[in-house]
Write a structure and sequence with these properties.
The complex is a heterodimer of chains A (about 400) and B (about 230).
Chain A (H helix, E strand, L loop, with lengths): L3 H13 L1 H35 L7 E6 L17 E2 H10 L4 E16 L2 E10 L3 H4 L3 E5 L4 H6 L3 E5 H8 L8 E4 L2 E10 L9 E5 H8 L4 E2 L1 E6 L5 H18 L10 E5 H44 L1 H9 L4 H35 L14 H28 L2 H6 L2
Parallel strand pairs in A: 4-9, 6-8
Antiparallel strand pairs in A: 1-11, 1-12, 2-10, 3-4, 3-7, 3-11, 5-8, 6-9, 7-8
Chain B lengths: L1 E12 L2 E13 L4 E5 L6 H8 L7 E6 L2 E2 L5 H11 E4 L11 H12 L3 H14 L15 H13 L5 E5 L7 H16 L3 E6 L2 H5 L3 E6 L2 E7 L7
Parallel strand pairs in B: 3-8, 3-9, 6-7, 7-8
Antiparallel strand pairs in B: 1-2, 1-4, 4-5, 9-10
Helix pairs in contact in B: 3-4, 3-5, 4-5, 5-6
The chains are: A alpha+beta (about 400), B alpha/beta (about 230).
């Protein structure tokens, strides 16, 4: 294999037959290039999709309340359903083990003032688990904890943009902010991948909000994540079960769709999963199609090359070339050409994706890229098929009696 | 050097078979300059292919350099060809993208001789056929006679026991034919066994012994009575 003489012979053959070499090289390079580009763009679509579902925990269930639309158990329709602390506890008690994280939410609009800077924000009063529900990233300090909850502490965690608005580049941690007349201590700064709106929020302990802004135990919303050990089907029926139990608890007709609204990520995930599956199938189909086209291309060229060389091979045999050396020569040539050309196609493809990648974002294609192992795998497949495609005619050529080959014009 | 006993060979043609060689007996000693004469279809090319180990025979015995040729696989045949035989073809059969020197050096490559040595030996033989200055020319840049000289140099380069020439002058005009025959004679004078196949009387007349073949049998085998050399 690493016989220098043999390689010199191969390089000479390749160099003296440039058109032939270029043709077979081009086929492979083009197939790999197309494969890389199509696969990369497909992946880009996938990334867009993944990104838009990355805001919240992907096993979250959000429970909101509304007004009843049907009369039930002697109660009129149009009745407003208000969640309270006992609904939160009810879910914890009822579904212990099935719930991973749980937090209620209360929303409150506030005007925040800090040393002359002021702005309007939404306060989201929550339980400590909320950090994990919303995938909140703590940049500085800490999130709300159980002690804050117990003590109804006047502490807040502010979003990255709130901090920028009010503090600029100065340190926010430990400072006091006036929210609609009441002073709160900043204990943390967070960021969120969900976008600017999420980073313009202020978190505070739910007990603090309840005692200051209403002196009641009302809740606007309950969010939870289901135990990730559950599969999608189990999670969906779990969501339905919560809805059913809450309806029963609040005397709501079982078929009333408006009063308790449960949005379950499991359902969305199921749809996303289906779409991803579909997308993956398309990408796979395109990729395989390109590969098959490449394989057919290289096979054709190999058959043609060997046919064209029949006479030369006959001469070589008459001069003492063994069949093995003939087969070896053709195979090494084809492996060499396909490897070099395939690698070339790969490099061009990857660089093209990098170059055009950012300009494709308006077409919902984010970070189009190909996993290295996929392209290398594809290249290896093409090399192997090129080899096999070369081997069969080479073997046949090596078997032809030299005298037949010599008479071949 | 070459000994053939009751050699038979037939080719299948559809369901039939064509009996081409019908029990030939031939003995060529070392250093002989023999020509096989015959019209087309007489079996002379078939004989050369068998002698040249390019094709197998059906029955009979063939001894090359004292060695009985039987059950030849491709690899063994290739090695024996490389070692004992040098070929000169009617259509030259040079490799078009290799220059004269590389063409001559090719059998040495299959003999496993290193590149430098190959080039050196090949150049010696090109010099011997008077084409040293044409070493770097491609076959397409050479005349027919020059191509055949390159082919002869290629046949000789492995120092074979026998040079087999199949219509070596078939594609050449008479004056070039003559000079090619002179070259073969010279090689023969140096001790090489030369085995020429031809259908031209005057070419055959330049050899030492003429074997006439007709319809697969030898009809005559005689020494050429040399005219006094001038």
């Amino acid at each position: 294999m690493f016989d220098l003489d043999r390689w010199q012979e191969i390089f000479q053959t390749l160099g003296k037959n440039k058109l032939r070499t270029a043709l077979s090289g081009f086929t492979i390079a083009f197939a790999i290039l197309l494969f890389t580009l199509l696969f990369g763009i497909g992946n880009g679509l996938k990334h867009t999709f993944e990104k838009s579902f990355n805001d919240d925990a992907n096993n979250a269930i959000f429970i909101r309340s509304g007004r009843t639309t049907k009369p039930y158990r002697g109660l009129q329709s149009g009745r407003k359903i208000q969640f309270k602390n006992d609904d939160y506890k009810f879910i914890i008690d009822e579904f212990d083990g099935k719930v991973q994280f749980i937090s209620a939410r209360i929303y409150k609009g506030v005007q925040a003032i800090y040393k002359g800077e002021q702005n309007n924000y939404t306060v989201r009063a929550v339980h400590p688990d909320h950090q994990f529900l919303e995938k909140t990233i703590i940049d500085k300090g800490r999130f709300i904890n159980v002690f804050d909850l117990k003590n109804k502490s006047k502490v807040i965690v502010i979003g990255r943009l709130v901090k920028e608005d009010l503090f600029g580049n100065k340190i926010a941690l430990g400072k006091n902010i006036n929210l609609s007349g009441i002073s709160y201590k900043v204990i943390g700064v967070f960021s969120d991948e969900g976008g600017d709106n999420e980073e313009r929020l202020i978190y505070m302990p739910i007990t603090t909000a309840q005692s200051i802004y209403g002196n009641n135990d009302y809740l606007d919303q309950v969010n939870l994540t289901y135990n990730p050990a559950m599969n999608l089907e189990q999670a969906i029926s779990f969501g339905n079960l919560i809805q059913k139990k809450l309806k029963d608890k609040h005397d709501i007709a079982p078929r009333d769709q408006g009063a308790i609204r449960v949005s379950n990520m499991a359902e969305a995930n199921k749809n996303v999963g289906m779409f991803m599956l579909f997308l993956n199938a398309i990408i796979l189909f395109i990729g395989l199609g390109t590969l098959v086209a490449g394989i057919i291309g290289i096979s054709n060229i190999m058959v043609y090359i060997v046919k064209e060389r029949t006479k030369e091979l006959g001469i070589r045999k008459a001069l003492g070339a063994t069949p093995k050396s003939i087969i070896g020569m053709i195979m090494l040539e084809s492996i060499f050409v396909t490897t070099v050309a395939g690698y070339g196609g790969l490099i061009i493809g990857v660089f093209t994706l990098k170059a055009i990648g950012s300009s494709l974002e308006q077409y919902f294609i984010v970070n189009p890229s190909v996993e290295t192992y996929v392209v290398i795998g594809a290249t290896i497949v093409l090399i192997i098929s090129g080899t096999i495609a070369g081997y069969i005619p080479a073997k046949r050529a090596a078997r032809i009696k030299p005298i037949v080959a010599l008479n071949d014009e | 050097m070459i000994k053939i006993e009751k050699l038979h060979k037939s080719y299948p043609i559809g369901n039939d078979s064509l009996h081409v060689l019908k029990g030939l007996d031939l003995h060529i000693k070392e250093g002989e300059f023999v020509s096989i004469m015959g019209s087309s279809g007489s079996g002379k090319s078939t004989l050369l292919n068998i002698v040249g180990l390019l094709d197998g025979h059906d029955s009979g015995n063939y001894y090359l350099n004292g060695q009985l040729i039987e059950n030849l696989d491709e690899k063994k045949a290739a090695t024996l060809r490389n070692k004992f035989l040098g070929f000169v073809f009617q259509s030259f059969n040079l490799i078009s993208y290799k220059n004269a020197l590389e063409n001559v050096a090719l059998p040495l490559y299959y003999k496993g001789i290193n590149r430098k040595e190959r080039q050196k030996i090949a150049l010696q033989y090109l010099d011997k056929v008077g084409l040293k200055n044409w070493a770097n020319h491609l076959p397409s840049e050479l005349s027919g006679g020059q191509k055949q000289r390159v082919a002869i140099a290629r046949a000789l380069v492995t120092q074979p026991k026998v040079v087999l020439a199949d219509e070596p002058t078939g594609a050449l005009d008479s004056s070039t034919s003559h000079s090619v025959m002179e070259l073969l004679k010279e090689i023969n004078r140096e001790g090489m066994t030369v085995f020429v196949i031809t259908h031209e009387e005057d070419i055959a007349a330049e050899t030492d012994r003429i074997v006439r073949l007709k319809d697969g049998v030898i009809i005559s085998d005689e020494k050429v009575i040399k005219k006094a050399t001038v």
